[in-house]
Design the sequence.
């Protein structure tokens, strides 16, 4: 399928503590996205230093790490056509106070840091992030029957 991509989602500690995990998964499922992998994990300093290395000089870096370690997180790999851009729209911008109503951050968060989910920001980043958190064996290539309805025949067969 043209444009078929995978993206990494981290459902952050604030979402788990606030009982939002099910609703977040439901939003992605209802959109028509396929879950290629899903697991719960307690993040370590080591993996957070790598994942947020581009923020290591920011004043919020230590707080960000503390927050991301404060409880386990749920990681998902989502698959779909142009899924990286679509998921970024579903999630909304980093500062949740500026996120549109209807987006996950727009509906569930008031914070720049406690912003419910992380989503990969580009194809290159997604590939690196998925490898960081998932082994090949944890990712599943299966037929999603409802894709016959989610996509047109042209989109499916091209
Ligand atoms: P995320 O999409 O995981 O990418 C980097 C994270 O750093 C971001 O979500 C927020 O959780 C956090 N972050 C970004 N900017 C700020 C900020 N100005 N203050 C506090 N935390 C921030």
Sequence:
């Amino acid at each position: 399928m043209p444009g078929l991509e995978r993206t990494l989602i981290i459902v952050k500690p604030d979402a788990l503590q606030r009982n939002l995990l099910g609703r977040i998964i439901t939003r992605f499922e209802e959109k028509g996205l396929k879950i290629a992998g899903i697991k719960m994990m307690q993040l370590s300093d080591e993996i957070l230093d790598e994942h947020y290395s581009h923020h290591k000089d920011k004043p919020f870096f230590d707080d960000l790490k503390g927050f991301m370690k404060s409880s386990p997180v749920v990681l998902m790999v989502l698959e779909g056509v142009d899924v990286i851009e679509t998921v970024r729209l579903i999630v909304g911008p980093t500062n949740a106070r500026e996120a549109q109503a209807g987006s996950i951050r727009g509906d569930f968060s008031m914070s720049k840091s406690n912003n419910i989910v992380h989503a990969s920001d580009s194809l290159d980043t997604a590939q690196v992030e998925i490898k960081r958190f998932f082994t090949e064996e944890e990712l599943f290539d299966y037929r999603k029957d409802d894709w016959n309805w989610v996509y047109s025949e042209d989109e499916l067969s091209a």
Summary: The mean pLDDT is 97.
